[in-house]
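>> received
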Amino acid sequence: MIFLQEDKLDLYDETMERAKMQIPLYCKDWTNFHPSDPGITILENIFAFQLNQQRQLASVSPEVQEKLLNMMNFKRYNNKCARVLLQALNAEESFLIPVNQRFSLGDLSYECNRQVEIGGNELTGIYTVSKSGEIEDLSLLLYDEMKVERYPFGKEAKEGVELYLCVENPIPQGEEVIFYLSHAHNKWRNPAEDRKFVNSFGEIKWEIYTDKGFVPVTVHDYTGGMVASGELRIKQNAGEMAEYTLPNDSMGYVIRGTLEESNYDVVPVLNGVYGFLFEVWQKSTESTCLTFAKGKEISLYLDLLEEGYFKLYCKEKDGKYYEYTVGEVKRGQRHYDIDHVGYGRFVFKFPNTVAAGSDSIKIVAYNEMMMRRYRIGELYGFDDQEFDINIENIVKESFSLLVETEEPDHSLSYSFVKPDKTGDGVLNYSLDENKGHIVVHDAGAYINSTIYVCGCAITQGEKGNILAGKRFTPEGYDSDIVFTNPSPGEGGRAGETVKELSNRFLGDLRSPYTLVRENDYEQLVKQIPELCIKKVHAYKDDNGNDIYVTLMPYSDNRNPGISKLYASVITEYLQSRRMLTTKVSLVQPIYVPVDVHGTIYVKKNYKNCDDEIKDLLNKALDYTEGSQNFGDILSFHDLFHELEQLDCVDFVYDFSITPRDRAHAKLNGMDIVPSNNALLVPGELYVDIETNIEE
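>> returned
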């Protein structure tokens, strides 16, 4: 009832009319429906009470609705920044990109979350080496100007084939590099959950060549062994790289991937490889809080500091943070020194009073707009105190409050608090990131304290999920370097409202999680993550309670069956969703060739008659490529009529269709009826094409 919409509630007059229509069904002797009749009065009171209850239930506040949905493990999605991988073209030397460096694309803003160095390396070549030592150059994959398709492990993807990525300069020890591999046949495969493949289609061992030979490295592979487009994150923890000589006598620094296990349904085909990328997120940082360990000096590269609105806080031995000011105005004052060494580059110097720790120093920087309204208000201590900060579409992960508290000695200490923190004495508050609304549920130990915005960034959600190949403009300086995204943006979404959350809950209630009908099996098998399912059919045993499922995967092989990997994944997926009294079994698909015999007379002066006739027959007989599914009947009369309708055909004479495998495809009159696990495919076409009749 809490999900009833106001415009769908019953109306009083309509309810009474329906009730009056039902009266003769229960009491034929009751004929007086006048409003003064006591029975009608009772009905009016009952329905007035019922409709009032409905409206009371339907008017439950959004806050209560959300709490009820949270109890059922349904929680609102927060705003999430879209993530994009960028490459730098025309960079002749390496350079630093600072924290929160902004890149513009129309009205969208993208930023780095950390300082990165780029432009110091690039991919120079890609090669495949077979087990017999034959080498194939795949370096055309590096050029955006032409889209070519290449097989990284050969057309057969045999185990033991090696893929070499050659780079211009050695990758420093401890550095992580990002590559993006674009798959040519990505549309066939169901996406993996959270970009992480759990099924092993291809096991690839990645190594880097050093003076000790090839040494394994840590790799996060989001391509599933190159079965889908995705990134390859390589952590260089193998030691100092050395030059390697390939079988074609070219030398360079290499990363080698060896195919150790091949279970591919579709052999990997790439149409682009991009190297040394860096990440940016679609957001606009209004203020940021950076944390550092204790040190005599801290070097920071942050363009936001150039606006001049920043504060610095240090943790002391009592575990509390205090504000430090520039220079020592009087003896004993908390102070620090700062050197401006370039645009956005600052060096902070500290005294020894700072306590040791990984979070000893916090630097909070604001832009001018945020500095004008960063003060929110005072905490009075009553439950559910509300504040509006007039900022919409906040990135919740980036948001934090700065809490200013007066100590007994009248000094001011500071705390940094994220939303939804719980515990004794903790400031507990929630944030509606869509509206910029804060509700303080419990002020904890911070009654009478003042709160300020600390960290805050805003995003445009799903608008940041842009297509690949866009050109980004860095803000703050002019450069000949071109920044583009070889991969599309992903992950951006808008914060969910309570109404959207309730609609998602209702949609989830209507989704089949338990397999009941044959159609449920077919729908769920089609959507199993990571698999390439082309056709699927489920059917019931008429004499029992067994369900059989057969399918045809996408494959480079003609008439593919169900591999061991597919059988294992599908069986596990279905077993957890079947009814307890139902047994589910996978059945291998059968492909039944159909032979055609006949004579077709065509009209004079028509060209390509043979091709038109054979194309029609192949399309009608090839269930693997057409819309026909397992077990669909091939109608002789429909096929005969389609042939007659061709413009070039005069008439059809002595025509017949015959299945080769009578065990899996039977004749019903002149029609062919395949088994439930059988697909028809073209056999031999014994068709004579004639242009006239001999008398």
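>> DSSP finds nine helices and 41 strands in the chain.
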